[in-house]
Write a structure and sequence with these properties.
Layout lengths: L1 H39 L9 H9 L2 H14 L5 H5 L3 H19 L5 H8 L4 H18 L4 H15 L9 H24 L5 H16 L7 H37 L1
Helix pairs in contact: 1-3, 1-5, 2-5, 5-9, 7-8, 9-10, 9-11, 10-11
Length: 259
């Protein structure tokens, strides 16, 4: 009987070591996230250089890609969701930063697939597809290698099936959108203080479009509905700013007509 519990102790120790390996990669990622957060906070400063801030943030995309590559490489596909909870909050935070930078650069919303291309290095399947193209060329050049190449293809495909598919979860992408919206609502208020009256209307239109998209979705996740309340608060704050600006504009027009 003692041997049974000794075996459990070994499994517990292995699990602890594996979790520690994951946490080590996450710690490195959180350090990068902290640096990005400090840089992005400058957007709320008066006369901030948005273009320069976005450029600085994008310099961290490559190191972040390495962090995610490390995480996706060490986690087996059959245990991915067991350990994904360790870094889902970190993923949402990074997604929100990238969405914010993209909005400042283009005024549009970056898709989940586009973010995955930025942060998640090509998985094994993509590498195999490229290798398969090379294999086809080799077959045409030398027919004697066909049997060997076919064996090689089978081995590669077998290895691919064991790998974790690299993508972000939909909920984490949506939470990233909500976090970005919170930052934009704060930025909207600071724009008025800096006498920038056009950008708040662009932000308002952008968030209204997001709101229309969110209403199309049916959320079974009660926890996510709490995050949705945060988005509604951000949208309401922006709408209040726009309402005040419109009232001020109307008041100015009345004064001009009276002169």
């Amino acid at each position: 009987m003692i041997e049974i519990f000794q075996q459990f102790n070994q499994e517990i120790e292995e699990e602890k070591n594996f979790q520690q390996t994951i946490k080590t990669s996450i710690v490195q990622g959180k350090k990068i996230a902290r640096q990005i957060r400090i840089i992005l906070n400058d957007i709320h400063s008066k006369n901030s250089d948005i273009e320069s801030i976005c450029k600085k943030v994008k310099e961290f995309y490559s190191p972040l890609s390495l962090v995610f590559d490390s995480l996706y490489s060490i986690i087996p596909s059959n245990k991915f969701f067991k350990y994904y909870a360790f870094f889902k909050k970190f993923s949402s935070e990074i997604i929100s930063y990238i969405l914010l930078v993209h909005f400042f650069e283009t005024g549009d919303l970056l898709t989940k697939e586009e973010i995955e291309k930025l942060l998640l290095q090509p998985d094994t399947q993509e590498c195999i597809n490229k290798e398969s193209n090379n294999i086809e060329e080799e077959k045409n050049e030398n027919e004697e290698l066909q049997k060997q190449l076919q064996i090689k293809e089978k081995v590669q495909i077998s290895q691919t099936n064991k790998k974790t598919k690299r993508n972000f979860q939909v909920y984490d992408y949506l939470i990233g959108i909500i976090s970005m919206s919170t930052e934009l609502s704060r930025y909207c208020i600071n724009c008025v203080r800096s006498q920038e009256f056009e950008l708040p209307f662009k932000i308002g239109e952008f968030l209204n479009n997001i709101n229309s998209g969110l209403k199309l979705l049916n959320f079974p996740n009660k926890q996510f509905n709490k995050h949705l309340g945060s988005f509604n608060y951000s949208l309401k704050s922006v709408e209040q700013v726009l309402y005040d600006l419109q009232k001020i504009q109307q008041f100015k027009e009345i004064l001009l007509t009276q002169k």
